[in-house]
Amino acid sequence: MSIYNKVGSTYDSARSKIGIKDILHEVEILGNEIKVLDLGCGTGHPIAKAVSPNVKEYCGIDNSQSMLDAYLKNVQNADCKLLEMPDIKQIPGEWDFIFSWGAICHLPIEQQKKTMAAVSKLLKPGGRFLFTSGKEMDKCTGTVGKYTVHHYSMGRSAYIGFLTAQRMELVDTRFSEGDFYVYKFRKST
Length: 189
Fold this sequence. Notes:
Elements: H1 2-7, H2 11-14, H3 20-30, E1 35-39, H4 47-51, E2 57-62, H5 65-74, E3 79-82, E4 95-100, H6 109-122, E5 123-132, E6 138-144, E7 147-153, H7 156-165, E8 168-175, E9 181-187
Parallel strand pairs: 1-2, 1-4, 2-3, 4-5
Antiparallel strand pairs: 5-9, 6-7, 8-9
C-alpha cells in the first residue's frame, strides 16, 4: 500500500479514536500480562499509544516505512516491524491477542486468507483474533486523504467458515463505533 507511504505522519490528523474501546476491552478480558500483535499499526495513533502501556509486550506490523517512522515517535516501549501482513509467519513466538483494525480489509481475499492462516499459527491456544471487515461479501473503494484505497470482504459466513477451518472459534460479530463491523475469534484449545 504505497498510498500510506505518501500519507505518512499526516495520517494522524485524520485518524479518530475509533477502535481503542474495542481493543482495550479484549485486553481487559485477557489481562495485562499478554503479548499483542497489531496488524496494520500505521503510525500507532491512537490504538498502539493507548494499548501498549497496558500490556506486557506490543508489536506493530505495517508495510509502510513512513508510517513506522511516525510510529516510533508516537509509541514508547513497543516494537514494530516492516512487513506485509501475509508475511507475519516470520514473526517468532506465540501471541495472546492479534488484531487488525481497519487494515486487513485492504488486502485482496487470497492475501487475507494467508494472513489469517498465519494468525492461527501465531496465536496461543485460547488467544484471540479481532479484525474489521464488511459483513457482506463485497469489494469497494474508500479514501485516505486524497488517495483511493480498496476494501475487500469475504462476508460473515465465509470468514466464519475459513477461520473455523483454521482452528478458530467464533466469539462475536457486531457493528461497532464508526460503523465498523468487528469479528472476534478465539483459537481452539
